[in-house]
Design brief:
alpha/beta, 2 domains, Immunoglobulin-like, TIM Barrel, about 475 residues, eight-stranded parallel beta barrel, about 30% helix, ten-stranded mixed β-sheet
């Protein structure tokens, strides 16, 4: 009897943590740190009670209704961040990496995006792993090398991440094929040259990249075949039609199979607005459907609801939100919308800029990252409130969790998304975007709890039902 009583008592409490927004997305965060009202602040435990009548806004959580399984939450390890890290001493760099991986003191990220060659967020001249003098070709890949990634501490940094958190998963994205494969002979703009020989060459190039990473102790669980394939711009980029990506996916899968690689292939890696038009020609093809393991999306144009449309069309193909930066409670709510529309992951884009908003080669001015480095004192860096906002999800939603049913709520009161972790604990992330404190009730499987969420604040609530 005493065991039963003890068990019942431990299931009657709800843990709660709060984080507040503070001038979200403002460039003032490049000037120095400041303390928001709540920063992953642990609150007194709430009581689970029997249901009662209430006029409060109510979130109905239904754990029996399960949706997609979560792969993970994380960020990018691109050259801008790594270049800034390389300016730190070894102890500071190790402490920074620990904050990315550790669930107790840091973010607890478990999913990281790396680049195949350089992206626009780099301090380096643009490069790939097979750059040649103009007019030369190398279909046999005799000049293939990832040595620049070694020299620039990219490999070392990813290795350190894997050492800090062995369960971390890595996926990779290319911004451009080598210039000699492209119609304009340039890493900027252009497209892959026509012809099966160029499709085969690019497939071999990507296969060699995955093998090279693995030889360095970096297993690449998945890759996208072209970052933003509908964009041609003045940094590494490459237009790639869905028909050409279908050909590449088939050729790349063949390369992987012939060389014993298990890396999964994710298609598209671009905006919601163009997603259905891009993925349907690939997934409606029987061979394409068989070689594609998932769908990658960005959120710079369009609505997250297209992910539910894609899920309805292709329910066996997981969906991943591979790139976006978000700020404040509006950003936390946007993340909730991703998950409510079947995203199995979320990755922020760019982990640390410095106080001079550097160093990058994007064509606009980025917003503040979750960490900012003091350009004058590289060992000094600070967290922005986005660190806290991301951790409200990443510390508590475990890999392998399932999204479960919950009513969305209202932006005029609170919104939410809910999950069931592998250990059976339930988590709901609740967002108050208003300028006033909002009280609300959560009703779940015969029990309820009541909470108050301050203005402009996100709360994460965890309990055992």
């Amino acid at each position: 009897m005493s065991t039963l009583i003890k068990s019942a008592v431990t299931t009657l409490e709800v843990e709660a943590w709060l984080s507040s927004e503070m001038t979200p997305g403002d460039t003032r965060w490049f000037e120095g740190p400041a303390d928001p009202a709540y920063a992953l602040s642990l609150q007194p435990k709430l009581k689970l009670t029997a249901p009662s009548a209430s006029d409060l806004p109510t979130i109905l959580v239904t754990p029996a209704h399960t949706y997609q399984q979560m792969l993970g939450i994380g960020t990018s390890v691109e050259d801008t961040t790594i270049n800034n890290l390389s300016k730190m001493d070894a102890a500071t760099r190790a402490s920074f990496i620990q904050q990315l991986a550790d669930k107790e003191s840091g973010l607890g990220f478990n999913l990281f995006r790396i680049t195949i060659g350089t992206s626009d967020f780099t301090a380096q001249p643009f490069y790939t792993y097979n750059d040649l003098p103009e007019g030369e070709t190398d279909f046999d890949m005799k000049h293939f090398s990832i040595q620049k990634d070694v020299d620039l501490s990219i490999i070392e940094t990813v290795q350190a991440l894997l050492q800090a958190a062995p369960n971390v998963k890595i996926f990779a994205s290319p911004w451009s094929p080598p210039a000699w494969m492209k119609t304009n002979g340039d890493l900027k703009r252009g497209s892959l040259k026509e012809g099966a020989e160029y499709t085969a060459a690019l497939a071999k190039y990507y296969r060699l990249a995955i093998q090279a990473f693995e030889e360095q102790g970096i297993p690449v669980g998945a890759m996208t075949m072209q970052n933003e394939p509908l964009l041609e711009t003045d940094y590494p980029s490459c237009y790639m039609s869905p028909e050409r990506q279908l050909e590449l996916a088939i050729a790349l899968k063949r390369e992987f199979d012939e060389h014993g690689l298990s890396t999964k292939l994710w298609i598209f890696d671009h905006n919601f607005a163009d997603a259905m038009g891009y993925v349907t020609p690939i997934l409606n093809d029987s061979e394409g459907y068989n070689v594609v393991d998932g769908i990658a999306l960005h959120d710079y144009d369009g609505s997250p609801e297209v992910m539910s449309e894609i899920h309805a069309a292709y329910p066996e193909k997981p969906i991943y939100l591979t790139e976006r930066s978000l700020w404040g409670t509006a950003g936390a709510d946007r993340m909730a919308q991703y998950f409510r529309n079947y995203a199995s992951s979320y990755n922020a884009w760019v982990t640390m800029l410095d106080s001079q908003i550097g160093t990058h080669q994007w064509l606009g001015q980025p917003g503040p990252t979750m960490f900012v480095q003091d350009a004058a004192q590289p060992n000094r860096y600070w967290r922005t409130p986005e660190f806290n906002m991301l951790a409200q999800y990443s510390r508590f939603v475990e890999p392998g969790a399932y999204r479960i049913g919950s009513t969305y709520g209202s932006t005029e009161t609170v919104t939410n998304v809910a999950f069931r972790n592998p250990d059976g604990s339930l988590v709901t992330v609740v967002i108050n975007q208003t300028q006033e404190e909002q009280s609300f009730r959560v009703l779940c499987d015969g029990q309820q709890f009541i909470a108050a969420l301050p203005a402009g604040t996100v709360g994460t609530y965890r309990w055992i039902q």
